[in-house]
Records
---
Amino acid sequence: MRGLISRIFGFVAAVRFPRVLQTFINEKYVSGFKIDMSEFKEPKEYESLTALFTRELQCPRNFDVSPQAFISPSDGTCLERGVSKELKAISVKGHEYGIAELLGDSMERGERDAELEYVNIYLSPRDYHRYHAPCDMRILSALYVPGELYSVAVSALLKVPNLYAKNERVILKCKMRNGGILWMVFVGALNVGKMRFDFDARIQTNACASRAEALYEYENLKFKKGDHLGNFELGSTIVLVAQSEFLKFETPTDTSVKFGQKIAEFNEISQNSI
C-alpha cells in the first residue's frame, strides 16, 4: 500500500497544472516548508512540484578541494554518526539497524571484519534533493534492493526497528582515492517518487511491487568530488558507511549539513588508488 501511495504521489507531483494554479501550489509548498530559495529560481519558474523538488542550484557551491577533505553529498540533517559495533549502527536515539542487512550483497564477507564509520543524513522536504560525489571516487557497483517505503522521519525511526534495512534502497559501492571502500546508501521512503542516477538509467526505484534485487557492476566509472550523481524526487535519507582506517567522520549529531560542507577527513592519501 505504501508503494502504491508513493507512486500515486509521484504521478500527481509530476502533473503540470495551469501556470496560475501551479504558481499557487509552488508558493504554498515553499512557504509551508519554509524553504530558502536564495540559491534557486523563483517558485513560479517551476512547471511542476517534481521540478521544484529536484531544483538545481543556480550557482555552483564552493567546497574544500583539498584531497584530505570529504564533503557532504547533499543538504540535510546529520541524525547520527559513529563507529559500528558488531555490524550494528544507530539510526536515531539508540535505535539500531544492521549494517550487513543494510548493505546486503554489496558487502563481501571479508569486509564485515573491518571497523566501520557511519553517518545518517536525513533530507527533509525542504532540502535540496540532489546528491553529489563526496570525494574523488570510482563506483564499483550499484545494488538495488526492493523493500518497504516507510517514512524515514525521526518519528518513524523511533517506531520501526531496523527501518533503513527494511526500506527500498540503492547501494553504491565505491573505491576512494586512498584505497578505502565507501558505501553510499540511498534509502527510499514514503512519497519519494523516484531515485535517479545519472550514470545508469537501468536503476528504477518505486516502479512496481514485484521488483527483484538487481546488481549493476561498472569498470572505470570515475567521479570527481562535487560531481552530480542524481536526485531524490522528495526528501529521504543517505547513509554513508566507510572503513574506519581510511575515513573519520566529524559532523556532530543533530546538526544541519550542506552539500559541499566538509564532514570527514581521510586518514591516508594515495593519489593512484582509483
---
Amino acid sequence: MKKTFLLLCVALVATVTQVHAMDRAAYHAQKKCTAQTQTVTDSILNAPHKYHEHYYERLQLFDHQPTIQCTDIVMLGNSLTEGGGDWNQRLGKNNIVNRGISGDIAMGIYDRLYQILPYHPAKIFLLVGVNDVSHDLSTDSIVHMIQTVITAIRTQSPQTQLYVQSMLPIRESTGRWKRLIGKTSQIPEINAKIEVWTAEHGIPYINLFPYFTETDTAIMRAELTYDGLHLTEAGYAIWTQLLKKFLLGIKVEYEHAQCRRIKQAHDSSFCPNF
C-alpha cells in the first residue's frame, strides 16, 4: 500500500514538474515575443524621424492658424481626417480644428502633439494606423505605437476628453495601394487589441469599422471608397452621423440605403443603435 502511494506521489510530482516546465517555456516564449515587439517600438520611437513634404507643409500651415482654444475639438489623424475638410460644416459646429495629415503614421502624430496638447483642447478624436500597416509592421508594434500616442495625450493633457476611433477597412480589389495588399485582416486585429486596451484604461472607443464593411467581411463597401482606402461622400456621411453622438450629445438616426436593405433582410446589427 505504501509502495503504491509512493509511486502515485512520484508520478504526480513528475506531472506537475512537466506542466510547470511547459508553463515556463510558454512564459519565456511570450516574454521574448513581447520584448521583440517593444524593441521594434523603441527603435522607431528613438530614431530620428523624417516625414514626407506634405507633412511639413501641414505643420507650417498649423503654425499660422489661430491658437487652439480649451473649448476646441481636434480631429487628429491621417488622410481620412484631412480629407474630411471642414468638419465644422459636417457636424454643425464652430469649434472643430482639422489636424489631419495625409500619409501620417502613429509616430508622425506623436511628433506633432506639441502643436496641440499645451493648449488643452476640450476633445480629441484620434484615428490612425492604416499607414503604419502599409509599412509592413507587426500588429503588436502598431498597437504599441498607437498606445504611445494615446498615453502621451492623456499624460500631457489629462483634462482633454480623448476618443479613440477604430481604423476603417480597406478594399484591396481596387489595386490602388500595393503596400496594403494582403493586409485586410490585420486591421480588425489591431482594432480588437486597441478596443480591449482602451476599455481597460477607461478611454472611450468609437468602433467605426463594422459600419463600413460588406456583410460578414472585413472589406470596405465599394460605394464608400473611390480608391480602396479614401472615402467618398457617402463614407463621410456615415462617419459624420456616428460622430454626432459624441459631439452633439443627441440621439442620431442613421439611415443609409445599404442599412435599409440589410434591415429588410432582418440583419439589424448593421445599423447603429443610438
---
Amino acid sequence: MGIPVLILGESGVGKTSSLRNFEKGDCFIFNVAGKPLPFRKDLDRVNNPNYQQIKATLARQQYKTYVIDDSQYLLAFEMFDRAKDAGYGKFTDMAIHFKSLIDYVIRNTPDDTIVYFLHHTETLDGGKIKAKTVGKMLDNQLTLEGLFSVVLLATVEGNQHVFVTQSDGSNTCKSPMDMFQYRIDNDLRFVDQSIREYWNIQTVPAEEKPITRNDWIRICRAGGNVEDVITAAYMGYGYEKASQIKRKDLDEIIQATSCLYAEHKKNIMQEGD
C-alpha cells in the first residue's frame, strides 16, 4: 500500500524547489506542465504525462519516491480539453480520474512507495486556503484533502521558504502527531525521510524487488511463450518459481531466455529435416 502525500502552495512559494536536495536516481518527477526545474540539477523526469502514463510508470516500480508537479494541471488540462462538452458529467469524470490516480497509489504500489502531489491553492471568500480544483462543481464531487493523511502547505515567511504541517484554522494542513514540527524547511527530501522513519517504512532496494507483470511478459516474449524454455532460463539463475525472480537478474534472464529459445527453434528445424 503506497502513500500519497499532498503538498499545497501558490505558484512561486517553493513547491518544486523543495526537490533540490534529491539526487539523480532518488526520485522520479512527473512534470505535468513540462516546466524546467528551478535549480541546477538533472533529476529523472518525464514531461507532459497524462493519467495513463503516470500509472504505467508507477507500475514499473523503479523508484521509491515519485513527484507529480503540479497535479492540479491534470485537472486543468482535462478541463481545457473538454471545455466544449455540455452538461455537468465532465466534472464527475474529472473527479473520478483524479481520485482513481490516488487510489492507484494506495492500492497498486508497494508499501515503500511515496507519491507527492504538488498542487496549487486557492483562497476562499472567508480567507481559508484549500487545494485548487476547477470550480465549485468539482468541489461538490471531491474533497481533495480528505484523501490524504499528510497535507503540507508551502509558503514564504519573510525571506524563508517553509512547509506548514498543521492547520491553524486558516488552511487544510494536517500530519500525524509528532511527525513534524509546526514549521519546517521546504526540503522534500527531509519530508520523505521523516515519513519513512515515522511509519517505519523499510525501503527495499529496486534491484531486490520482485519483477512486475510487465517484466514477466518480456521474459515470456523472449522465450516465445514456450514454458520449458522460460522455466529453464530462470532456474539457471537459481529461482525455483517465476514469482521469486528479482529485478537485478531481469535483463540477464531475458537474454538467456532469448538464447535458449533460439536454440529451441534450431532443434525443431533440425528434427524437421
---
Amino acid sequence: MRILVTGSEGFLGKVLCRQLLDDAHEVIGYDIANGNDILDVSQLRTAMTDCDVCIHVAAIADLYIAEHQPELARNLNINATKSLLEIAEELDVRVLFASTVCAYGNNGVAVCVEESPLAPTEVYAESKAEAEQLFHGKLDNHAILRLATFYGPNMRSSLATSIFIEALKNDEQIHIHGNGLQTRCYTHVEDIASGIITVMDSQQNGIYNISSDEEMNVINLIELIAELMGKTANTLHVEDRFGQINKSKISSMKLKKLGWKPKYDLKTGLQTCI
C-alpha cells in the first residue's frame, strides 16, 4: 500500500515508518522537519493524493507545551486534523488517527475499554478528545487509535521515563510529582507501531486502544529502572502537577483479537533504553 505518515520524523513516526518499509509498503513521510506544514491544505492534499491510508501521528504531544501554548495545541491537534480528514474524505483515503489513552483521564473506571467515558484533565488530552469528535459518524471508513504512554530508544527528553533514566545516569535527584502512586501502562514504541499496523492491515475501523496491560506506578517504575542500571534512586516528592491522572489501566483486548501481541514486557523494554 501507499501510506502517508504525518509526524514521520518524530519519536513514534520514525519507528512506524521503518516497520512499514520492512513490510514492503510505500511510505510518504510528512513532517515539519522536512519542510512539510500540516496546516498547509494544498501541500497536504498533494502529499495525500494516490495514497491508500494516512496515519496521522503529527501533533503537539508535549504536555508542557500544550499547557503553556493551548492555542497552538488546539490549532495543530484539532484544526489540522479537521483539514486532513476533509481532504482524506475527498480523496477516499482511510485515516488512522493517533489519539491518546490520556483522554480517559480520571473517569473512575478500573480498566478502560474503548467504550469507557472520556474525562480529559489537561489541554493535550482535551484537544485529542475533541479531534476524535471529528470522526464520529465516519468510523466505518476510519480508525481512532488511543495510544498508551510509550517509551523506547531515542525517546523525547521530556518524557518521564527518559527523565528518570538520565537522572539516574548522572546521579541526579529525581522529582516525583505528588505521592508517586499514579499508574500508567507503559508500552514500548515498537509495540505501539506494530499495533497501528495491525489495525491498518486488518481493514477494521472504529476505536482501538493500543497499550500494554502491565500497570505500574511512578515509584515502582523508578525503582525498576534503578535496579536495571545498578543505581540507587535519590528522590524528592514535590507538588503534583495540574491535571494529573491518578490511575490509568487500559485494556487492549479488542486489538489482541486482531492478532496483536506486545513484544516487550516493561523490564525487557526498559533494557533497550539503558
